[in-house]
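Comment thread on ticket #2218

A.B. wrote:
> Attaching the input chain for the structure job we discussed in standup.
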Amino acid sequence: MTDTTASPLTGQSWTVDVASKDIKLPIVAIKPDFAISLMMVIDMGVKFGEFVGQKLAEKLVHLKPDVIVGPATLGIPVAIEVSRALGLDDYVVLQKSPKIHLADAMEQTITSITSKGEQRILLDRRAIPLLKGRRVVVVDDVVASGSSLQGAIDLVRKAGGDVVGTGVILTEAHEWKAIMGDDAKLVHSLGHIPQFTKNGKNWEPIADTLPKE
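C.D. wrote:
> Ran it. Output below, let me know if you need it in another format.
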């Protein structure tokens, strides 16, 4: 369903069911005839972060993870809240910005639908003992193209971690399934958002990106 509440770029929004909680997201144009509904979890408040952390933890607890991994930036609050809900203390952040202490970091190249060009995710080698030989769940806010989530999984495996599952607040469209291959089966989510095309003045969901029964 669409409505006309405020979005800074299109003036339209999309309402998504996140674990039985309706969330209104702005529709943001990526191209003149292509748009997405944008969720910025860091702007959605402490209570929302706590809510999705608890709901994802409920979906992931059966995997018995030893540690949660979240890629910067939007995966960080998800990793913190899922760790908290599972009663875990340590979590690992995969950085994107080169910092002086990451000069010797392990790295993986990724792409993102909301960022231009290739990026790198970096793992501080001092965090390897938290991952090696341990049961790891990788979390993020949204999986869209699948490149970012797959890159995080691959980097954890390079460090010797056993990736037993992944958790995201939202899946977007279905392209990520082909990119992730067998690892797509690891994904647990709380909701799904389509992508959009222009129809006159209105943005409408692309049919084959809607949730599949």
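A.B. wrote:
> Thanks. Noting for the ticket: Residues 1-8 have pLDDT under 50 and may be disordered.
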